[in-house]
């Protein structure tokens, strides 16, 4: 039956898709007639082919030469289309106007998730239209733009990058062979810094070079979602490619850790919900048992009151019979003289009956003492169980204190890491100050050398001053670059600090949540245990009251039996009837005692069930402690990752210091070469005879 329903659902979906395809074809023909546009047979044939394929949601027009008019009609049809989820327009020789119309029509579409525009030679206007599409469309997931020329026009590519930065749905982007240079790579990197959804990016066979690779590396240090980046054929050095690959590996690790944390939080929420359900069920079961016990106690009290009324009626009947017997005794006093011998025999029988009654009383007293001892033993067992439960609660509190101590130690470690970060930043600032001082000293020396050389002839120095101005400009550009690198390093340090602060806040929030959950569970467990103890104490008090009532009834019965024995000294038959009544009452007492025993056994079973529930709670608490340990291990691993990142930053600083030293050595060599050239030129010139000798 389930298979039949499944196939019927598939068949209905296919029928709906075929109907939607027919509507698309009709709307295309209608709009062509309204606009006076000639329909392209290739497009109609492709729509017919897609209609024959049941259940297809792809519009494949690859290799078809589509005109501007058909592009405008398709754009109007695709605005409100709900059939196609994938549109392929690769190698269609689309013009700039046609691309713009199609993309404007797709801006309001809500079903297309894949768009392929490969090999259409799109440039400035196409890039701008793509940027508007990425801003307005919230459904597109994959965009293929291979073999186009988006990077040739900087303004259009900048608009496309702005749209990519504001996109919230795109996850895959293919930009192979788009003539993107280092400037376009910089614009793309700015977009990647702002984007938080793109996961795969293909930039193979462009012309980014070293500067583009550095800008991509800088963007990857801020982007946290990009996990796949293809950069073959871009003339990027291997060290930058390795650094980019390391950053991508970090992003993959972050995504995996985020998924694991999400799954763990879901599992924890499910377990907490199960615990809450179990506790609510236990509470409901306890309330039901308490209601049952109350009903049984009310029934027992009603039965005892009914039995007391019946006994009182029997006693009244016995009193009336005794009065009648006393009247008969007065009538038979004359006959007593003749029956003295019979009286002696009756007296012997009465003594025997008294002995039997005494024995019965002793037996009853022994049974009552045994019941009291059993009740005392049961109370002692209950008290022992209560003490064990209180000890377990103390152990749980001690575990909570240990977890709080661990949290404090982790906070101390985080504070130490902060101190290390401050020390490293201070060292970096000192090094930067030293480099700035050295650069100023070199500038002063260069200026002094220029002033000394100005004493020579002006005609010969003009050429040299031009060269020196060029060298100064190059030095200033390098200094600006070094200052930009210093600013970038400071920004990276600030970002690392911010990430550490956010991670610490998240860890503290998670620890606070776990503590509050454990405390709430302990409070609920303690309240349930206190309620159970109260119920046990109430049941014990009720059983004691019932025992006292039974003792009172037994004492009253004994008094009544003694009165009847005194009154019926001469009536053996009546004594036998009273003995039978006593036997019936003893049976009722035995039945009541057995009932009380059954109730106590049921209470013992409930307590055992509570013990098992407490064992389950202990196991769950142990599981929560394990999860807390796992979270602490993950936090330590994150701290180790941050330390590795700090070490990599320090290595970069060392490398850049080495580059600065090389630049200084090159500049010193150039200055020495210039001085030697000037001296040789002055010595070789005919005016050297008029120059002053040093």
Question: What does this protein look like?
Answer:
With 694 residues, the chain is mostly helical. Helices cover 80% and strands 3% of the residues. It has helices at 2-35, 41-52, 68-78, 96-106, 124-136, 154-166, 182-194, 209-222, 238-331, 333-336, 340-454, 458-567, 572-684, and strands spanning 58-60, 86-88, 114-116, 142-144, 172-174, 200-202, 228-230. The chain has a 7-stranded parallel sheet. Helix 7 links the parallel strand 5 and strand 6 (200-202). Helix 8 (209-222) packs parallel to helix 9. The longest helix is centred in the middle third of the chain and has 115 residues, at 340-454.
- Summed up, the helix count is 13
Mean pLDDT: 81
Helix content: over 70%
> Structural class of the secondary structure composition?
mainly alpha
Fraction in beta strands: under 5%
Can you tell me the overall shape? Answer: elongated
| Main sheet record | 7 strands, parallel
N-to-C order of helices and strands: HHEHEHEHEHEHEHEHHHHH
- The whole-angstrom Rg is 50 Å
- Low-confidence regions: 1-17, 687-694
Strand element count:
7
List the strand order in the largest sheet: 1-2-3-4-5-6-7
Distance between the termini: 112 Å
Protein name: Leucine-rich repeat-containing protein 45 isoform X2
Organism: Danio rerio (Zebrafish)
């Amino acid at each position: 039956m389930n298979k039949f329903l499944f196939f019927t659902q598939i068949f209905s979906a296919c029928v709906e898709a075929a109907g939607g395809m027919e509507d698309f074809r009709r709307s295309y023909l209608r709009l062509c007639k309204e606009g006076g546009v000639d329909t392209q047979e290739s497009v109609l044939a492709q729509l017919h082919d897609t209609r024959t394929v049941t259940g297809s949601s792809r519009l494949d027009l690859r290799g078809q030469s589509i005109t501007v008019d058909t592009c405008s009609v398709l754009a109007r049809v695709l605005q409100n289309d709900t059939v196609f989820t994938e549109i392929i327009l690769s190698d269609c020789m689309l013009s700039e106007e046609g691309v713009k119309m199609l993309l404007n029509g797709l801006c309001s579409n809500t079903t297309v998730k894949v768009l392929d525009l490969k090999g259409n030679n799109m440039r400035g206007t196409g890039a701008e239209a793509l940027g508007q599409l990425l801003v307005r469309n919230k459904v597109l997931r994959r965009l293929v733009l291979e073999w186009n020329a988006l990077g040739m026009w900087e303004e259009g590519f900048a608009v496309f990058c702005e749209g990519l930065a504001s996109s919230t749905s795109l996850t895959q982007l293919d930009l192979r062979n788009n003539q993107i240079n280092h400037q376009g790579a910089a614009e793309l990197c700015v977009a990647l810094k702002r984007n938080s959804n793109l996961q795969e990016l293909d930039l193979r066979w462009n012309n980014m070079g070293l500067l583009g690779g550095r800008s991509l590396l800088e963007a990857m240090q801020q982007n946290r979602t990009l996990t796949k980046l293809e950069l073959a054929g871009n003339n990027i050095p291997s060290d930058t490619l390795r650094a980019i690959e390391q950053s991508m590996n970090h992003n993959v690790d972050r995504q995996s850790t985020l998924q694991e944390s999400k799954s763990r939080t879901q599992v924890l929420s499910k377990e907490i919900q199960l615990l809450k359900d179990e506790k609510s069920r236990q509470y409901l079961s306890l309330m039901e048992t308490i209601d049952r016990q109350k009903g049984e106690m009310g029934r027992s009290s009603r039965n005892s009151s009914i039995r007391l009324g019946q006994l009182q009626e029997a006693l009244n009947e016995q009193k009336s019979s005794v009065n009648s017997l006393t009247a008969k005794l007065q009538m038979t006093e004359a006959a007593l003289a003749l029956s003295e011998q019979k009286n002696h025999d009756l007296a012997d029988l009465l003594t025997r009956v008294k002995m039997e009654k005494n024995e019965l009383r002793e037996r009853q007293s022994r049974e009552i003492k045994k019941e009291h001892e059993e009740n005392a033993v049961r109370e002692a067992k209950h008290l022992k169980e209560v003490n064990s439960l209180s000890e377990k609660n103390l152990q749980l509190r001690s575990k909570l204190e240990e977890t709080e101590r661990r949290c404090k130690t982790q906070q101390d470690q985080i504070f130490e890491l902060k101190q290390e970060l401050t020390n490293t930043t201070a060292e970096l600032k000192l090094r930067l100050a030293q480099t700035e001082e050295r650069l100023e000293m070199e500038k002063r020396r260069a200026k002094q050398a220029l002033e000394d050389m100005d004493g020579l002839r002006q005609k010969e120095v003009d050429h040299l001053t031009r060269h020196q101005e060029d060298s100064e400009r190059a030095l200033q550009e390098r200094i600006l670059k070094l200052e930009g690198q210093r600013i970038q390093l400071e920004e990276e340090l600030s970002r690392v600090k911010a990430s550490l602060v956010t991670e610490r806040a998240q860890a503290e929030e998670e620890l606070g949540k776990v503590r509050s959950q454990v405390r709430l569970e302990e409070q609920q467990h303690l309240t349930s245990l206190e309620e159970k103890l109260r119920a046990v104490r109430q049941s014990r008090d009720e059983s004691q009251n019932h025992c006292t009532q039974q003792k009172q009834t037994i004492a009253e019965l004994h008094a009544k039996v003694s009165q009847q024995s005194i009154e019926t000294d001469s009536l053996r038959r009546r004594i036998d009837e009273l003995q039978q009544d006593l036997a019936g009452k003893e049976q009722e007492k035995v039945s009541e005692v057995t009932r009380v025993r059954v109730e106590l056994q049921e209470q013992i079973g409930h307590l055992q069930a509570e013990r098992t529930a407490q064992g389950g709670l202990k196991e769950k608490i142990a599981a929560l402690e394990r999860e807390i340990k796992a979270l602490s291990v993950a936090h330590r691993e994150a701290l180790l990752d941050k330390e590795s990142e700090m070490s990599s930053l320090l290595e970069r600083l060392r490398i850049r210091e080495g580059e600065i030293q090389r630049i200084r050595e090159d500049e010193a060599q150039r200055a020495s070469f210039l001085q030697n050239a000037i001296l040789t030129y002055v010595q070789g010139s005919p005016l050297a005879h008029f120059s002053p000798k040093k």
